[in-house]
Amino acid sequence: MESEMKDTALERIESLLKAELSLTLRLYEQSETQKKALKENLNGKAVSETTEAINKTLRELEAHEKNKTALLAELEADNIEAVVGRMPYSQEKTRVRQQMKRLGDLLEKMQSVVESSRSLLKKDMDYLNFSLNVMTAASAAPAYGTPDAPEQATQGRKLFDQSI
Asked: What are phi and psi of 100, to 5 degrees?
């Protein structure tokens, strides 16, 4: 009876890991697409579309995490590694450990992609801030004019004037 329960638990864990691996792989591919769109920096539409797809996948992962949490609560464990560690050796246990390793490797690769995207977004934001500062003349002090009347040297442009 206890052996059947352990087999069923391993089967459920294996099923959860397969689903998590599939969702994480999709998220990784979407993140790569988003990074490529950020690198090309041609239009915001591609970035927006991939961001929306990523958000959808993240919502699916969130629902998956609830299922995983429910299973762990049922098995009275904090994490899957603890459950698998308590199980006797079997082919299922080996497969589960391999899936856990694949998932860990994939998460490491995804972390690298996310860091690259974060860096690209920071550079884009810095460029945008610089451009806005140039257009509004907010970052530059008056270059010409008398020291006692600096307001005469400032052009007084507004960001959304027709003349810009």
From this structure: -65, -40
**Six token digits for residue 36:** 């490529």
Q: Which letter, b or e, does each residue of 15-51 get, where b requires 16 or more Cβ atoms within 10 Å of its Cβ? A: ebbeebeebbebbbebbbbbbebbeeeeeeebbeebe
93-100 long-range Cβ contacts below 8 angstroms, 24+ apart: 93/10, 95/14, 96/10, 96/13, 96/14, 96/17, 99/14, 99/17, 99/18, 99/21, 100/17
Query: How far is it, in rounded angstroms, from Cα 12 to Cα 115?
Result: 33
- At residue 6, the pLDDT reads 58
Question: Lowest mean pLDDT: which of 60-69, 113-122, 140-149?
Answer: 140-149
Q: Distance between CA 105 and CA 24 in Å, rounded?
A: 11
Which CATH number is 2-138's, of 1.20.58, 3.30.70, 3.40.1000, 1.10.1200? Answer: 1.20.58
Could you read off the pLDDT of 5-50 as tens digits, one per residue?
555 888 899 999 999 999 999 999 999 998 888 888 766 788 889 9
Question: In 3D, which of 151, 155, 162 has the Cα closest to residue 134?
Answer: 155
Cα separation of 54 and 63, whole Å? Answer: 14
